Amino acid sequence: xxxxxxxxxxxxxxxxxxxxLLTALLFDIAAxxxxxxxxxxxxxxxxxxGAIGGAAAVIxxxxxxxxxAHGEAVHEVMETHEQFALITLGIFGVLALWRIVRERKMATxxxxxVTGLTLVGVAILFVTANYGGRLVFEHxxxxxxxxxxxxxHERSEGHHHQGGEEExxxxxxxxxxxxxxxxxxxxxxxxSHAPSTPPHQD
Length: 202
What we know:
By secondary structure, this protein is an all-alpha fold. It has helices spanning 6-34, 37-65, 72-102, 108-137, 145-157, 172-178.
């Protein structure tokens, strides 16, 4: 789909709902503190759109699971990530429906309860994201074995930087060229070299 496979699409869809749901919580808290209508409306729409984006992220994640070659360790982390993702989606799905139905009728106590549940949802969202990060950074999930082996080979070869260019290997000629010529101080007696000593410039 548009050059994406399911794992890449899942990665692309993760960031937006996370940002929106966190933003919804922040505007919710600000709306409660200031009682400004504009802040309440922003929190409402970011929550609703964030919940929809979360549903897209979960659906793509379930599809990605079927397209990733993995072992037992990855499977365990993946299952935990999936469970927390479904819990997160459930919380924000309920909150979105609740606010669609009750948004204009909520009293302060009910709105405070909604804000508290949003805080719980964001906390579980961060746990979900943590397990997703473990899949990528600790287990290299969604990276094919051939690509991973090639990367490991390149790392074993090493890569060095020296002012943007690699320093050339030293040779006898280059060392000789960098060695300063020998000059006797004025008035010093002539000197001699031991047998087999290579000559140098005087």
